[in-house]
Amino acid sequence: MKKNNFLLSIASVALLSGCLASCGKSTPTITVWVGEESAQFYQKMCNQYKVEHANFGYDVVIKGIDTGTVAGTITSDPKAAGDIFTVAHDNIGKLAGGKYAKPMVDQLLIDQVESDNPDSFKSVIYSTLEGKRYLFGAPYISQALFLYYNAEKISAEQAKSFEGIFAAAKDAGNKVKGVTVVGDDGFNFSFTLLAQNATDHSTSVKIYEGATESSKGTSNVQGDDMVSRTKWLQEAYNNPNGFAFASQSGWEQDLNNNAVLSVIGGAWHYEAAAAAIGSSKIGITILPTFTITEDQAVGTCQAGTTFRAGTFADCKVFMINAYSDSGKYAAEQELIRFLTSKDIQTRSFVECSNVPAYEGASSQFKTLYEDNRITLNQYLLASAQVDMASWGIPQPFITGTLNTYFYSKSAPAVYRALIEGKNYPETDPLVTNTYTTNGVRQGLYLMEYIWMHGKNPTSIPTELPVAA
User: Fold this and answer.
1) 21-46: pLDDT as tens digits
2) E-state strands within 57-120
3) 134: phi then psi, degrees, rounded to nearest 5
């Protein structure tokens, strides 16, 4: 592979740009990949930037892409990708480690990132290259899960707890479920896994804690509180008015048919949720609490313990393609500094509902609403998402291996089997009697083992908990 000159001097770039201009060459182009829903906005902002910065020296072309699959596109054909592209932060380690991205060395950009972003984001946007820690991703959108609910059938007070939601569902009909999720994957179906004690934010769950590029760190999902939370969700699943996975018709149709009254989703699900519930009657709030009963209490997790459902609280970032022409390097960093500035993040929120990543963004939302620059639903959505940041953690998958082990090696399927009371695997099961405390521990051990090893163990220890 041709080695990229990551540390090309800005002086050299300036000389090259000047030569291109003086020799009558056409203006070179920087291509930026963003989410499809934001392409028009960012093209307008970049056109404006070029007008206001006559010496910038580049045309900017914005291309809208599916941000959920862009990391795979980059690794399969990086030369065909944009000079700058957007990904969720959990792809940074994979792209940096595989040398698909250049580090950001412009000090003004580094200073802006360090000044504007919360510690939780700053902890996941750096990676190591040749033994040195570099900035690889510049945050500009935050994302977290929260609750959409039918405000005609669930009151704002009831929406504060799952118990309240289940009571509202019971009032709505014997077969009406209180809450669903948009998917059973490890991201969208994680609200009990990532739940925290509602009083002190404590949890025994650890997911790759302390991981590095060469170490998986520590994982623990077998604590008494996690066992109790799983038993709570099992009971909620079996409650006629409790929790349900989406039907084959999809969660949107379930909401539209009033088969379920609320859904846990993100800002990117708003249009679908509003269409299903009705934009005039949709409620939006942070994820509810739930309280452990005597039947669900295990060991140190006592009855009466209240948890708030949790989420991965993440950021989307801009990265620089390692295969981009090295002559664009300084200009790319300058452009990223502009695109991730507080002003552009705020304007992106107003025009595209992209919730900002910068620290303290929530202080802007009320003013924007009172000035009629955003709708009530935009205000509620942004406030709920930002407020969930304190009840969430960034996805800790600093390498592609950790991402794959967590999401794609069947751990989410194990957790769903636990909730549904099924053996896992169905043939020659390792986990049985899943509605017993020991069966729950078996399943949680299996999940932890998969996280750490990427495969099933040959057997599960008799005495649990034990490190996987």
Assistant:
1) 444 467 899 999 999 989 999 999 99
2) 59-65, 84-88, 101-102
3) -125, 155
